[in-house]
Amino acid sequence: MRSSKSVHLFRCIITTIFIALAFLFDPNAVYAAARAGGEEAEALEAGKASMQRMRSDAEEAEKYSEYKQRFDRIEYQDDIESCGFRVIEDQIFPIEMGGYGDAFFVPAMDESYDRLLLFFVAADGEILYKTDQLETNGRNRGRMEQPNRGISAVSFQDVNGDGRMDIVLITSCINEGGSYAGKTYKVGDVLFQNEEGTKFYRDYRISDKINRFSMNKSIDLIVSFVRDGNSTEFLYTAATLDELQGAGLRIISEQCYFRNFEKLGRLQVVPGVYSIADYGVFMIYLVNEQGYIVSSLQPMGEYDNLYALKGISCRDIDGDGLKDIVVLARYSYEGSGHELIVKSDYAVYYQRTGGFSADTEMKGSYRCGDEDTMEEVVEKARAYWGWKSEK
User: Fold this and answer.
1) For 256-286, what is each residue's pLDDT tens digit?
2) Measured between alpha carbons, how far is 365 from 253 in angstroms, rounded to an integer?
3) Closest CA to 192 of 303, 56, 97
4) What is d(CA 333, CA 370) in angstroms, rounded to the nearest whole number?
5) What are phi and psi of 309, to 5 degrees?
6) Average pLDDT for 139-158
7) What is the pTM of this model?
8) Is 179 helix (H, G, I), strand (E, B) or coil?
9) What distance separates the 2 farthest-apart alpha carbons in the chain?
10) What is the Cα–Cα distance from 108 to 88, expressed in whole angstroms?
11) What is the DSSP string of 264-308?
12) Per-residue buried b or exposed e for 132-163, using 16+ beta carbons within 10 Å of the residue's own CB
């Protein structure tokens, strides 16, 4: 005999299917049934959620179908704008394709969905090859709308040593929602020319590592990884301090010390920098007395280089009696006019039972200046959480 739990599960499944079908034909009747109550209320909610997902998927499929039809109609360069795409005029470059000879690299944006498209065009305007299969078009999984704002950098060079020109691409993106909303970030990609010189292809594993391990900040950084085999991956995957140092992490010894963290025990605070392609990647590790990494912090964010570490402070910030971590440093990055900009910034990490949680609230209300000291930052951080000034 079936158990009562199995019978109940079977009834819920059947009811969910029935409600979903009923919702298609008479949603008002379904809502009336919900108001009347009954043991299938939970199944009703599941049916409504299922229908919402189905509707969303159907809407995305309809958008893609319309977009794909416009994309497929493009046979000549003049068709690009007439099919609803905007050519990025200042990023058109002459290139060489092995199977066709001289050609032009012509990028365009779909303004309806902010998707980036690449066209490879012959001298007479005929489209030799086109693609929208790019890492930057997959930021919002399962959605047509993407956060692309344009091309940040592009380079044409042989990066895999096969004698054919490849394309290194960096785009700028801004998310509309989520904890990272409104902040510009980069997405890196590499397109390899095929043996016939008629198409380009991507290695999704390479693109994933470029972006997952923050090697997307510049063309030189991407090339250093893809062509020369240098990588920041170990910074995120190493298990011990010895492993980090063996791979090339330079410890900032004057800011390296042990502290007792109430929930996590006695840990060594280890700041370090790894140099790759003229970039200094800054990380902070919390290491136990056996030399194993307990946690890692990334205060550098989207900056290019650590310019100077001004200090690391371990004290209670949010008033829960547990030591938190405040990092104050100066970072450098390349401005829109390719000029070097140096800026002071801070990061706060709150101690929790399972590790440290990066601040996402205070940073929205307080920006530090170049003259701010660690004590001033700590005082303002504590004031944010209701502490009275010690002065």
Assistant:
1) 999 999 999 999 999 999 999 989 999 999 9
2) 32
3) 97
4) 15
5) -90, 115
6) 95
7) 0.79
8) coil
9) 76
10) 5
11) TEEEEEEEEEEEETTEEEEEEEEE-TTSBEEEEE-TTTT-SEEEE
12) bebbbbebbeeebebbbeebbbbbbeebeeee
